[in-house]
Amino acid sequence: MEGLQEGDIMEILDPQVVKEANPEEIDDICSLTEACLRLKGRDRPTMKEVDMRLQFLRTKRLRKCKFLPASDQEIEHLLCPEISNSNAQVNVENPGNLTSEGISSCYSLEQELSS
């Protein structure tokens, strides 16, 4: 919490995360972390809110890596549990064009942020 307040976040982040993430992604995770560390339980987000926020951030990251289409309608069911049983399909954009470097870069950052 101290690092978040003082702005020394780059010193406590794993070097791989610093290398792979952009400042916006780091800010998003930091603000979520800060919200989760609030002293009063009523001020903290619920687990469902945290889960939805992480899903949103993951989807945003995957879009940048070209793993998901840009259409919100095609991924809406991932973020909205009430329509998760719908017939909506997630179509991967051009899976033949994915490079192993791009996949591992996105995967490693995702793993680091989720742990």
Automatic annotation (TrEMBL):
Alphabetical keyword list? ATP-binding, Nucleotide-binding
Q: Which domain of life is it from?
A: Eukaryota
One GO BP on record is: cell surface receptor signaling pathway
Q: Which GO terms label this protein's molecular function in UniProt?
A: ATP binding; protein serine/threonine kinase activity
Q: Name one GO cellular component term.
A: plasma membrane
Q: What is this protein called?
A: Serine-threonine/tyrosine-protein kinase catalytic domain-containing protein
Q: Which organism is it from?
A: Aegilops tauschii subsp. strangulata (Goatgrass)
Lineage runs: Eukaryota, Viridiplantae, Streptophyta, Embryophyta, Tracheophyta
